[in-house]
Amino acid sequence: MTEAEAPVAFDRVCILGVGLLGASLGLALKARHVTKKVIGVGRRRESLDVARSMGAIDTLSLEPAEAVGEADLVVLATPAALVIPMLDAIRPQLKPEALVTDVASTKAEICHHAQATWSSPRRFVGSHPMAGSEKFGPEHATVDFYEGSVCLVEEGEDVDVEARKQVVALWEAVGARVVSVTPEAHDAMLAMTSHIPHVYAALLAQGAAEAGEVRALIGNGFRDTTRIAAARPEIWRDICMTNRKAILTGLDALKERLTDFEAALCAGDGEAIEAFFAAGNTARKKALGE
């Protein structure tokens, strides 16, 4: 038996934001009979129409506060910067027993705000399903999008125990493996494993583009390393703005290592350069558990 301990089901689910993640969740919940009805909420009628035509949602709305009133589960699949204002907007309209979670890639700022503004024990539980793509929009949604992924779920003293169990069961129901984490640990780790890699991918892409006509000289290494630079800029702006402290700390640590490598290269110290790459080789295996 998993941490969730029991299957989960909701009569009405409201998904705020029906892009790639939100629409994929709607498809998965319906295919796995986790809910009877999915209400999709967004800012653009066109995207909502696409999601409905795919079967990801059953009904649509442009008004979040109105749409959440009858929902048993509300999932905020909006950009990270919109989660806090959306939580404030919908909180007065929710049923007392309603469960709320999100999919944002940063957690500390969001969860601290919820801790300060929601009644304890709170029924908002932060989530971060680590499934994604450089593609976006409901037209790219798939029913198995979360299958085999890892979903990080907030743990905290003020979180409602039963609500958390339901959130865990929710993500396990769509095929994800749940890992518990505090919001602070989440942001520190994701800064190094996701957020800063996006920064470096953007830097590498810019450097190559400024080097001249390099298309014929680009190999798989460059393509693999910079693939994530194709992601939506506004999404990564919001992620960086909501995880500034951890990203800055990580950048400082990496700059020290880069300075050491630069010094070894300037000195023509082949032994130090080889040791640098050997350390990277070993570190990658450790990080991946190989």
**How is the main sheet built?**
6 strands, parallel
How far do the termini sit from each other? Answer: 27 Å
Instruction: Name the CATH class of the largest domain.
Output: Alpha Beta
Count all strands and give the number. Answer: 9
Report strand order across the widest sheet: 3-2-1-4-5-6
Number of domains: 2
* CATH topology type of the largest domain: Rossmann fold
CATH architecture of the largest domain: 3-Layer(aba) Sandwich
CATH homologous superfamily name of the largest domain?
Answer: NAD(P)-binding Rossmann-like Domain
Order of helices and strands: EHEHEHEHEHEEEHEHHHHH
List low-pLDDT spans. 1-6
- Tell me the number of helical segments per DSSP (H or I, 4 or more residues long): 11
Mean of all residue-level pLDDT scores? 91
Shape label: globular
